[in-house]
Amino acid sequence: MNLPENYIPILIQAAVGLGFVAISLLGAHFLGPKQKKGNSVKNQSWECGVAVEGNARTPFSIKYFLTAVLFVLFDIEIVFFYPYAVNFREFGMQGFLAVLTFVAIFFVAFFYVWKRGALDWDK
């Protein structure tokens, strides 16, 4: 098999990455703590020293997940402002109008979510 020279660094990096993963997994298996099987008190789950109440499989309210998704959505929006903030002079008026359009789209989404009642915690 005749590989071009450009692929050699990529193959070396892939081999190092896979080697690191293999060594980490094997090291954790052989050097890590061994847990005894059984139903001892030591193997039960505890939260800050307080006994567990209820079942861990109790479903959460959909509002919790909706709030998390909305937070991620509007939080990631902020990341897109960084290139504009760094280069706002080079972008000029065209860049300013592009950012205003971007913000307008997110304001429309925010007001839609607000009117649908997704931000009302009392319901």
Overview of this protein structure:
The chain contains four helices and no strands. It is mainly α. The protein has a domain at 61-118. The model has no long low-confidence stretch (mean pLDDT 83). InterPro entries: NAD(P)H_OxRDtase_bac/plastid, NADH_UbQ/plastoQ_OxRdtase_su3, NDAH_ubi_oxred_su3_sf.
Strand count, sense and barrel status of the largest sheet are: none
| Alpha carbon gyration radius | 26 Å
Task: Quickly give the structural class.
Answer: mainly alpha
Order of helices and strands: HHHH
Protein name: NADH-quinone oxidoreductase subunit A
InterPro entries: NAD(P)H_OxRDtase_bac/plastid, NADH_UbQ/plastoQ_OxRdtase_su3, NDAH_ubi_oxred_su3_sf
Catalytic activity: a quinone + NADH + 5 H(+)(in) = a quinol + NAD(+) + 4 H(+)(out)
Membrane topology: Multi-pass membrane protein
SSE layout and pairing:
Elements: H1 7-31, H2 62-79, H3 81-86, H4 88-115
EC number: 7.1.1.-
Pfam family, one: Oxidored_q4
Membrane topology: Multi-pass membrane protein
Quick summary of this structure?
This protein is mostly helical. 63% of the residues lie in helices and 0% in strands. Its main location: membrane.
